[in-house]
Amino acid sequence: MTVGKVLRHVDWWVVLLIATISAVGVLFVHSATYGSDLEALARKQVLFLCAGTVLGAVVVFVPYARFLRGAWAVYALAVLALVGLFFFGSVLNGARRWYRMPGVGFALQPSEFAKLAVVLALAAWFRFRDKAGLFEGLLVPIGITALPVGLVFLQPDFGSSLTFWPILFAVAYAAGVSGRRLLAFGASGLALLVVAWFTVLAEYQKTRVRVWLEHLGWDRAAVEGDPAVREMLLGDAYQPWQALIAIGSGGVSGHGYLQGPQSRFDFLPYRYGDYIFAVLAEEAGLLGSIGLIGLYLLLVLGLLRIAVRTRERFGRLVVVGVAAWLGAQSFLHVAVCAWMLPATGLPLPLVSQGGSVTVAAVLGLAVALGVGARPEPVLGGDGYS
Amino acid sequence: MSRDRIRRIAWFFGLAAIVLVGWLFQLQVSQHDFWLERSYRNRWAFKDVPTRRGDIADRHGVPLAFDAPGFDLELTYRTFRRQHPVGLALHAASLADQGRTGISSLRYADRDAPANALDALLALPVRWLRGGNAWPRAAELPGYGGEDRPAEAVSRDVRIQAVATVAALSGVPRARLATAVLRAVQDPERDGTVLEIACSAAESDPLLEPLGPDPAAARVALRAALAERVAELRALDDRLLVRAGATAGGSLFARLDEAFVDHAVWRQLAERSESEAAALRQSSFWRFLGEQGRAWNTWQEWCDWPEDERSDLIERYRVELAARVEARDAARSGIDQYFDPLRGAAGDEPLFADLPEGLEMPRFRDEERPFRVRARIPHDVAVWVALLEERHPGLSLRPAVRREHGALPGRDDLASLAGLVGSVGLYSPDGRSPEYDAVRLIAGEDEFARLDLDLPEEFEGVVRQSAANAMRWHLAVFGRLGRTGIEAALDDVLSGRPGLRFVEQDKRARETRMFDRLDVSPGRDVTSTVDVRLQRLAEEALGVPGPDSERAIALIDPENGDVLALVGRRHRTGRPGAPAEEGWTIGAMPVAWSPYVGSVAKPLVALEYLRAVREGSEDAAAPLVDPSSFPACEGTWQPSEEIPYRGRPQYCGAAGARHYHGADARSTADAIAESCNIYFFEAASRLGPAGLLRAYARFGWHPGDGLSGIADGTYQDRLAGMIRLYGGGPRVEVDSAFPVPKKGIGYGLAVWPVFVARAYAGIATGALPQLRVVRDVSAVVTRMPYTDEELAVVREGLALCVRTGTARRQLSGFAERLRATHGAVLVGKTGTAEVLSAARDPRGEGLNNAWFAGYVAGADRPRLAFAAVVYRTEDSGGLVAAPLIQRLIEGIASDPELSGEYLRGERP
């Protein structure tokens, strides 16, 4: 397939959405770091986007059949990279999540790339397994997903580990796995969470859950008068509470760009990364929030439209996986910022500042666009639907 | 099929987006105001600005009381034990000792303890830090018993503290050292001591290089560094002790040891005490303590009180509570509630009843809060601490203002006049509370209501409430109230008003803009009428009284009532049978149990009698005949038929010591000079009770009830500028059991010296001045209803008293010299009032209250009015009181400046 043909078939609406979301990201990373020592992060984010775009452009032109052939290798590489963290990773804030790249001021976070690897591996697994049974349709895919999830959880990075499961659900569902089985798996997953509470969850993770549950019962009187609540607001609940203040105080139209007090006056921690949506909601208000959520929804729908148009099964499942990954991570990020879920660190793809998350998202999207640019079957065998 | 499933996934994301938007709508639209307010609360702040309390100066500007900036030295023990190498070493070594043997004798006060502790830590075998059997007593240690694996917990804490000690002393990064030691602990093959491990790590890690590879050399260096810190602490301690004049106890090291001991039980008690303290603060018992002037702000203070004192307070409270509940009036409302100490007393009773256990809490110190090691440390010591603050984490300075008493004479009389200030606390003894003050300062004033707030209107009430809270907090923590003397009387003038700045700030409390402000109103300075030089002379003249002797001198300006000097020596409050250590007090105006003025009242009676003869009197008890027709004094007074007195014969002089004035005492002046009782028996009996009352009321010795305004402007129940005097105003016991003739010679009249001096100022000038101790109060003078002739007769009597009368032996020569050298005339009247009743004063039987009162007239006008008294003496006023005045005036005369001002009339 020629370059011109690929370019002709690329879904430019999706590209436009990606570009718009990325631009919004750069703007609000700049806003979140404006006036602080971290102002350079916005420029770094532009560099990451450029790097991602270059890599993505290459990926788009690579026939995706090669990804099928390399899917398991990529998966193995990702798992190895996650394992290697325990030996060579840098410790930051008590977690081993990064490989420090000497001399470039950049740290690589393998868990972000592992999501793409899981997408490819699951798509490869389901390529010839339409309506697979319990073992092939559920247990093996769970194993494929659980391995990197377990490694990410042990880093520990509970937030990232959560985003693998929507990929599994979406790809398996699209591959024809019984919905009832998936629901049953979801229910047993919840039961597993209860077990995890008593076994593997660290105290700080339990505390986040406890605080989240407690906050559902707070009213104004409790916030202003209950010493225990007040203490919590300054301690374990500080971060999500400040995010709520930022979002709620934004109102309909927000405080204006660069004018969000929670951001400007440093009350909102990790605002350029795990709480970037709170910055946007504070400065752009409900209208801006709806706008960004709408953009993500359109992106997900755009990707799913590509999947629908794709006749080849591996490509289709890859696109569904990418859509589920980015859609779920984005919406989970918003839900965490708005404290609909317990606090956890989860960046917003394309918007949050970070090299790995940005480049991985762009690569994932590039793979999806590459699939979309080749609507005709490029692979033989049972993959045709 | 597959496409349908993908479409369902799309629908799922669509629904998720709707849910998210719905939630955001709830936050950003429905709850917007709440979150916006939270956002403002995050960043708005009220910065209180302390005010300056006004100075009090004497009449010539000599400072008596003023604010001096200073510092308190505070210790935050938690920081000290976690960051200071001395605290770290002691805690780590102590924990290791206890973990192995169950006991530790390490104490800060022991000079060798820090070095020993460091040696022990450096020599700790790293295998002990793996837990296990190394710490057999770990489970028994406070705070470790609840751990799953106590030995491991002790290992961990000892390791962390040992590493922190070495890092603090050597300056190497703590984290690097901790990692090196932890690796050694985790490696079962590694052995050696903590120091050896550290030195070994220093070989490969450049950041640990300062430790060096040689353990012996490192030990020496670490010991030297520790010794340096200890020496600095000891130097600080020595300086504090020297400056405080202390010889033992209360030192920094003693305080550290107290905290060290408390640390062991702190964890268990902290939680319980907080809840107990919070509950107690809500109770009326706490208010009761405040009213007693015993309010505490921290649980620690309460715990520090002696046990019996706490029990006594609890018992007294129970009694008081029962009485209050019974006596409580109808509920008040509005601002009055802040003045009502009875508010809620009954309602709190059940709460209090639940608290006895809490009141028995063992004492302990909350180590997270800074506590004061020494208040108001000297400036040079503060500078020293500031310079070394970084080397001694846990020790800090807190700016503080102290009220200093300036050029006060050696004794405490003037200090008691100037008065004392005390912390406002949460409740003050006089019922004022910072709550009241905050309401007065914020809600009651328009200034803050005019804030041009750049905020949504709906938050205005929140802002004002927050402002009031900020002011309330400021007053509770920093507020000072005058408690006694001028400080109390003119508190409103002196105290000023704190200011507030309403600002926006970031998370690190850096201000970004100011919304508005309430400017500080500094307290105004107050000028006292007292002359420090005269006060000093008066104190010297008074001397040191013997046991049970009370004496006083009052000196005033006769023209305007300015109190120039006021001194008194009072040994006991006078409670019969009181133990010697009870009731010792100071006071500028002593009051004895029977402080009758005796014959110093006679000139007042003489004037009133002369006036009554001139003007006539409807309520006279007998015909008001000319005094020259009074019978001559033959020692005994038998009233004539026309006088309605049927009592026993009265004598001129005490029974057994009668004196006879004969014809010499027939004139009023002579009678005053000789203090002839017979003359005044006659005059008083003819005036009758009403006439006598008038005489005393005109001079402010009686409130004048029922005298149709005769005492208007004369009676004072306090000195202007003083909050109140001991026991209220002058006491004239006109309704006492004394017969009228006796009342005429000063029995039944309990008047303080300063009011006696005032009466003689009235005689000297013909006008009675209102007494005042501050010049900020206007002078008020009331013209007296006596003619110049009548006044001249009495003044002549006073002059004769000094020249030839009862004071002649002590003062005639001195008065002559004074006239010759300074042109000043000293006149006065003695008084010797027997302490008659053993029932009234068991210590006074057979004794007298000896007085001398009068004035000094300069060349042009009266300059000084005075009164001196010696209570409960065997001697007469002429013998013991007059010499006090002589010594005082000699002192004035010998000082050219003072004599020019007070004897010759050369005013500055």
Give the topology:
The complex is a heterodimer of chains A (385) and B (908).
Chain A: H1 3-9, H2 12-33, H3 40-61, H4 65-88, E1 90-92, E2 95-101, E3 106-108, H5 110-126, H6 134-154, H7 158-162, H8 164-174, H9 179-199, H10 203-215, H11 220-225, H12 227-234, H13 238-250, H14 261-264, H15 276-309, H16 313-337, H17 355-372
Antiparallel strand pairs in A: 1-2, 2-3
Chain B: H1 2-30, H2 32-43, E1 44-49, E2 56-57, E3 63-75, H3 77-83, H4 85-101, H5 113-122, H6 150-170, H7 174-186, H8 194-204, H9 215-244, H10 252-281, H11 284-291, H12 299-304, H13 307-327, H14 345-353, H15 356-359, E4 371-377, H16 379-388, E5 395-405, H17 413-418, E6 421-423, H18 434-443, H19 460-478, E7 480-482, H20 485-489, H21 491-495, E8 499-505, E9 511-518, E10 526-527, H22 532-542, E11 550-556, E12 563-569, H23 602-615, E13 636-637, E14 650-651, H24 668-674, H25 677-698, E15 731-732, H26 740-744, E16 749-750, H27 753-765, E17 767-769, E18 781-783, H28 788-803, H29 808-822, E19 825-834, E20 848-857, E21 862-873, H30 877-894, H31 896-902
Parallel strand pairs in B: 2-10
Antiparallel strand pairs in B: 1-8, 2-3, 3-4, 3-5, 6-7, 8-9, 11-12, 11-21, 13-14, 15-16, 17-18, 19-20, 20-21
Task: Describe the protein's architecture and organization.
The complex is a heterodimer of chains A (385) and B (908). With 385 residues, chain A is mainly α. Chain A has one domain. Chain A has helices at residues 3-9, 12-33, 40-61, 65-88, 110-126, 134-154, 158-162, 164-174, 179-199, 203-215, 220-225, 227-234, 238-250, 261-264, 276-309, 313-337, 355-372; strands spanning 90-92, 95-101, 106-108. In chain A, strands 1-2-3 form a three-stranded antiparallel sheet, covered by helices on one side. In chain A, a hairpin with a 2-residue loop joins strand 1 (90-92) and strand 2 (95-101). In chain A, helix 4 packs parallel to helix 6 (134-154), helix 6 (134-154) runs antiparallel to helix 8 and helix 15 (276-309) packs parallel to helix 17 (355-372). With 908 residues, chain B is of the alpha+beta class. Chain B folds into four domains: 2-44; 45-62 and 406-528, Penicillin-binding protein 2a (Domain 2); 78-245, no CATH class; 534-902, Beta-lactamase, CATH 3.40.710. Chain B is built from 31 helices and 21 strands. In chain B, strands 2, 3, 4, 5 and 10 form a five-stranded mixed sheet that branches. Chain B is elongated, with a radius of gyration of 38 Å. Chain B starts with a helix and ends in a 6-residue tail after the last helix. The model of chain B is unreliable at 245-249, 325-364, 426-432, 572-594 and 725-729 (pLDDT under 50). The interface between A and B is large, with 49 and 36 residues.
